[in-house]
Structure formats: structure tokens, C-alpha cells
């Protein structure tokens, strides 16, 4: 009579099947993945029907994904996985004198090659709004405090209907997106809209998971940024409106206190009803290495998201 419910040798036998040419990293993470998958399956007595339901969800996510939509990423997001990976990748030692701008997930709506604009330009096209916002600030080195020249701020947010332009046939291509490059003073400024909360797409597997877990699909109002500068570690982040709903229960768990901002009523500018001031602090690759547990590259920072 065995004291084990299931064959105790089985998991190790699967791990041991890895061949000698597997790289050390692949060997390490695959062994761990197999161990956790098997433990999870045994601990929960997963049946064939339940396993097939999970597989079908993954397959459906794959079928739904294309250049405009990354459903697999969205499924990871509702499980908090992208936020956890973001935290692991960018974590900085708490003894740093100051900290670079906190990071937040890229999300599935980033688009490469947003229009290159001039400072003071407006990223809004074809939308009437009374929430027009003048956003401005400085990009600096987090240790020296010096302004960074040549920093490219890639910005994107939704329209007031809660849709990114690639989700909405009524918006012009690349609406509410732009790239701005800082000069010697590190300063930036542009016009955008005060964003609104929006639901992540819930007509696919991510939505089914939210429904099964009795959760809502909403994200608090936010503006996305991807900031790159020569010699500096890219920053992928979002800033959140302090007045927004869902700051406490973001469907994808991305809110951090230091990223919550105030939209201040603004008078005297015919182009804006609100002003938003925010400074971004970047770390050089060298400083980031000194303080962080893991690095990233520009490519890996933007390898997700929409490719159109
Ligand atoms: Fe977003």
C-alpha cells in the first residue's frame, strides 16, 4: 500500500527528461514550472474536464489575438502576472537616495511608431471635450537631478468613450498618441485629455475569468508612457487621476501611490481646462544595475502590446 495519493516519482521523472543541451536558465525555469504545475494539479485534484476547460481558454485567447489585440497578455493582466513581472524586473533597492519613476505595466494597447510631434502639440483629433489638459514637466536623472536631453516620451490614452483608437473605427489612426523629444532643458509639454476609467475588453477569455471570479473589468483613468533616453533604462509607466474610480480595485492591479496625480483646473489657456504637472526620473543602465534585481532592454520593454 502506498502512502502517496499519486506516484511520487512522476514529477521528477518529467523534469529529468530535459536533455544536456538545454541552457541553464531554461533548465531552471522549466523544472520549476513543471514542479508547480504538477503540485497545483495534485493539490486541487484537477480533472480532465477542468484541464480541458483551461486549455480551451488558452486556445481561445490565442485565436482572438492578432496585431490589434493581445488576449493572452490581458489574461495575464487580470491574474496580476504582468504587474508582478514588472515589479520583479524593475525593483530598486530601498536604500537608493531617490528613486526613479515607478513603473507600471505596458498593457496590450501600446502601438509602435506613434507620430513624432513638437513640444506644445496636441495629441487629440476630432474630439470635442471640456477635459482638455496641458501636461508638462521635466525628465531628469534620478541621482544627479540633471535634465536629460533627447528623452523620447511616447504617450497614449483612451478617448472619452473609453476606447483606444485601434479599438474604435470612428477615431483617426494614431489618435491620442504621440512621441515628444526633450531638448537640453529636459522639459516636455503637450496637450491631451483628462482620461476616463474604461473596461478592459471582456468579450474573451479574460472577461470569462473576471466573470467567474465575480470581478469587474474596469481600470482607473490613466495615461500611458514609455520613456527612452540614450544611456538610460526605459521607463514603462502609467499615471493615474486621483479623482478616478477604481484606484483601489484596478482590474489589472497596476496602481502605485507615486503614480497618482492631480489634474488642476487651469485658466487663461484657450486650449486647456486642466493642468497636469509631472516629472519623470530615469536611471542610467549602470545605476539601474547597481540598484535593481534585474534589467531590461528597450526591445523587451516594448515587445508586447499591439504591433500595428
Ligand atoms: Fe490603458
TrEMBL record:
UniProt KW keywords: Dioxygenase, Iron, Metal-binding, Oxidoreductase
One family name in Pfam for this protein: Dioxygenase_C
Lineage of the species this protein comes from: Eukaryota, Fungi, Dikarya, Ascomycota, Pezizomycotina
Similarity annotation: Belongs to the intradiol ring-cleavage dioxygenase family.
A GO molecular function held by the record: catechol 1,2-dioxygenase activity
Ranges where the Intradiol ring-cleavage dioxygenases domain occurs: 106-282
Family annotation (SUPFAM superfamilies): Aromatic compound dioxygenase
Catechol dioxygenase N-terminal domain residues: 24-94
Protein name, UniProt field: Aromatic compound dioxygenase
UniProt cofactor(s): Fe(3+)
GO BP: any one term: catechol-containing compound metabolic process
Species annotation: Polyplosphaeria fusca
Amino acid at each position: 500500500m502506498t502512502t502517496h495519493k499519486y506516484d511520487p516519482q512522476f514529477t521528477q521523472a518529467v523534469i529529468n527528461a530535459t536533455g544536456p543541451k538545454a541552457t541553464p536558465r531554461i533548465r531552471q525555469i522549466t523544472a520549476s514550472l513543471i514542479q508547480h504545475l504538477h503540485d497545483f494539479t495534485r493539490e486541487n485534484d484537477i480533472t480532465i474536464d477542468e484541464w480541458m476547460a483551461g486549455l480551451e481558454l488558452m486556445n481561445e485567447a490565442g485565436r482572438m489575438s492578432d496585431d490589434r489585440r493581445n488576449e493572452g497578455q490581458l489574461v495575464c493582466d487580470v491574474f496580476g502576472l504582468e504587474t508582478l513581472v514588472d515589479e520583479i524586473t524593475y525593483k530598486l533597492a530601498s536604500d537608493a537616495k531617490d528613486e526613479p519613476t515607478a513603473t507600471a505595466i505596458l498593457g496590450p494597447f501600446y502601438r509602435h511608431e506613434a507620430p513624432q510631434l513638437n513640444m506644445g502639440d496636441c495629441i487629440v483629433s476630432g474630439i470635442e471635450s471640456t477635459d482638455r489638459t496641458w501636461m508638462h514637466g521635466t525628465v531628469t536623472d534620478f541621482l544627479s537631478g540633471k535634465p536629460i536631453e533627447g528623452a523620447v516620451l511616447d504617450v497614449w490614452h483612451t478617448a472619452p468613450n473609453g476606447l483606444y483608437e485601434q479599438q474604435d473605427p470612428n477615431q483617426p489612426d494614431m489618435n491620442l498618441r504621440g512621441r515628444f523629444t526633450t531638448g537640453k532643458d529636459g522639459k516636455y509639454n503637450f496637450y491631451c485629455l483628462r482620461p476616463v476609467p474604461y473596461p478592459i475588453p471582456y468579450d474573451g477569455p479574460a472577461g470569462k475569468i473576471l466573470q467567474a471570479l465575480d470581478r469587474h473589468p474596469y481600470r482607473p483613468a490613466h495615461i500611458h508612457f514609455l520613456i527612452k533616453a540614450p544611456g538610460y533604462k526605459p521607463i514603462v509607466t502609467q499615471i493615474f487621476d486621483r479623482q478616478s474610480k477604481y484606484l483601489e480595485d484596478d482590474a489589472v492591479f497596476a496602481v502605485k501611490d507615486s503614480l497618482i496625480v492631480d489634474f488642476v483646473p487651469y485658466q487663461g489657456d484657450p486650449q486647456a481646462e486642466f493642468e497636469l504637472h509631472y516629472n519623470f526620473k530615469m536611471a542610467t543602465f549602470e545605476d539601474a544595475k547597481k540598484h535593481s534585481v534585474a534589467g531590461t532592454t528597450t526591445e523587451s520593454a516594448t515587445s508586447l502590446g499591439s504591433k500595428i
